[in-house]
Write a structure and sequence with these properties.
By secondary structure, the protein is α+β, with helices and mostly antiparallel strands. The protein has two domains: 102 residues, Ribosome-recycling factor (Topoisomerase I, Chain A, domain 4), CATH 1.10.132.20; 68 residues, Gyrase A, domain 2, CATH 3.30.1360. The chain is built from four helices and six strands. The strands form two sheets. The chain has a four-stranded antiparallel beta sheet, with helices on one face. The chain has a two-stranded antiparallel ribbon with strand order 1-2.
Length: 185
C-alpha cells in the first residue's frame, strides 16, 4: 500500500516535470526550434489544427524556421496564424514555403522571458507540493485505519519528503538550463 502511495507521488512529480518542459519549450530563446510553433492553431476547414499537424517545420539555420504546409491552399492561413500568435515573429511567404526568421531578443524581452520561465517553475513546484500533500493524506489515512504501523508511516513520510525534495531540485535544474538558454546572446 505504501508502495502505491510512493508510485503515485513519483508519477505526479514526473507529470509536473513534463508539463514544465512543455511550457518552457514554448518560450522563445534566441535560437529557432520547431517546438516554438506548437501552441499555434490554424483554422483548417473549421477545426483548430496545430501547425505540426498540417505542415513540415524545419530548422535550416540557427535563426530560421521554415514551414511548408502540405495543403498549398493553406499557406496564407498558416502565415497569418504565425504572425498573429503573439510570439513576435514576422513570417515571409516564398511560394509554398514560409520562412520565419528569429529576430534577436532585446535584454528587456530576455528578462521578461526569464520571469515567465520562473513563473512556470513555481507552478510546477506548487503541483509537486499538492502531490506531497495528497501522498501524506493517504499515509495518514493508512496509519489511522491501522493498515500500517506508526513506524512504517513515519518512514513513508520521510521518503515522501526526500522524493519531493529531489523533484523540486529537478525543477530548479530544468529552470537554470532554460534561463541560461534565454540569456545567452
Amino acid at each position: 500500500m505504501l508502495e502505491d502511495v510512493m508510485k503515485e507521488l513519483k508519477t505526479a512529480i514526473e507529470k509536473a516535470h513534463e508539463a514544465l518542459r512543455r511550457e518552457l519549450s514554448r518560450l522563445r530563446t534566441g535560437r529557432a526550434h520547431p517546438d516554438l510553433l506548437d501552441s499555434i492553431r490554424i483554422d483548417y476547414y473549421g477545426t483548430p489544427t496545430p501547425v505540426a499537424k498540417m505542415a513540415t517545420v524545419s530548422v535550416p539555420e540557427p535563426r530560421l524556421l521554415t514551414v511548408k504546409p502540405w495543403d498549398k491552399s493553406q499557406v496564407r492561413a498558416v502565415e497569418k496564424a504565425i504572425r498573429e500568435s503573439g510570439l513576435g515573429l514576422n513570417p515571409q511567404v516564398d511560394g509554398d514555403l514560409i520562412r520565419v526568421p528569429m529576430p534577436p531578443l532585446s535584454e528587456e524581452r530576455r528578462r521578461e522571458l526569464v520571469k515567465l520561465a520562473r513563473k512556470a517553475g513555481e507552478e510546477c513546484k506548487v503541483a509537486i507540493r499538492k502531490a506531497r500533500h495528497d501522498a501524506k493524506d493517504m499515509v495518514d489515512a493508512l496509519d489511522k485505519d491501522g493498515e500500517v504501523s506508526a513506524d512504517e508511516a513515519d518512514r513513508a513520510r520521510k521518503k515522501i519528503e526526500e522524493t519531493v525534495a529531489a523533484g523540486t531540485a529537478k525543477v530548479d535544474e530544468i529552470l537554470q538550463k532554460k534561463e541560461k538558454d534565454i540569456l545567452e546572446v
